[in-house]
Amino acid sequence: MSASALAQFGTKHVARGIGRLSTEVIESGSGSYVTMVGGRKMLDFTTGIGVANLGHCHPAVTKAAQSQAGKLVHGQVNIAFQKPYLDLIQSLLPLMPHKSLDTFFFWNSGAEAVEAAVKLARHATKKQNIIVMQGSYHGRTFGTMAMTRSKTVYGEGFAPLMPGVFSVPFPYCAQCSIAKHSKGEYSYGNCCMDPLLQLDLLLKRETAPSDTAAIFIEPVLGEGGYVPPPPQYLARLREICDKKNILLVADE
Fold it and tell me: What residues have CB less than 8 Å from 188, skipping those under 6 apart?
């Protein structure tokens, strides 16, 4: 089947729930490049949306995948442990920023991990509400649609969404009206920390700490603009969560 025929076939038969930038058909990838069925070679700036950040078909990754496929393809976690799973945990343990972070569970996707974190937070705290950041992206499953605040398109037409989700501003200093009108007094390096004030007001007005299970945050805001928070923000947020007995969940 020709490249154009494959594109037409895909357009007709692949579900249209997800948009795509191109109807090109990728045949292979190597390093930073992908090659289309028609022979066109393109530089892949998406790196598989961060998944292939070592490059497509990295020799070491390819060798490891091929080797594992010859040993065990699917070993259910609810049946027994698998050695590669435990080996990965052993490698990650020394990299954890705190010794209390010593328990792991690996998921297929980010949305699954976030939904599991919601379940864990609600079960552990016996509280129901969740706070997310404006501009955040947490996924497109039913629960994470309610938590994603980067675009309305993800939840449009699917209401009512999961209840108990509240949002506060992310410290996006380049878009902060206070910083813009402070004549240089406030900036990324010297944030006004107004988002923390807005969080405090939210906890007083809309969702009491006694009803709030967790605050979810992307340590670097993703789809909302790829924005790192200003210095000290995360530390201050951690202090608030500890003081008010709220879990702090870092999504990636």
Answer: 173, 174, 230
Q: What torsion, rounded to 10 degrees, do the Cα atoms 199, 205, 207, 210 define?
A: 100
CA distance 74 to 82: 10
Burial label, 138 (beta-carbon count in 10 A; 0-12, 13-18, 19+): buried
What's residue 231's pLDDT?
A: 84
Rounded Cα distance, 101 and 99, in Å: 5
* Residues 182, 18: Cα–Cα separation, whole Å: 42
pLDDT at 19 over 90: no
Q: Which residue has the tokens 């900036």?
A: 187
- How many Å apart are CA 205 and CA 191, to the nearest integer? 24
Q: Tally helices (H) and strands (E) across the chain.
A: 8, 7
DSSP summary character for residue 31:
B
Report the distance separating Cα 230 and Cα 226, nearest Å.
Answer: 13
Could you tell me which residues are beta bridge partners of residue 165?
A: 130
Cβ contacts of 46 within 8 Å, gap of 6 or more: none
- Adjacent-strand bridge partners of 216: 249
Angstrom distance (rounded) from CA 40 to CA 101? 46
| pLDDT reported for residue 29 | 95
pLDDT digits (tens, 9 = 90+) for 83-114: 999 999 999 999 999 999 999 999 989 999 99
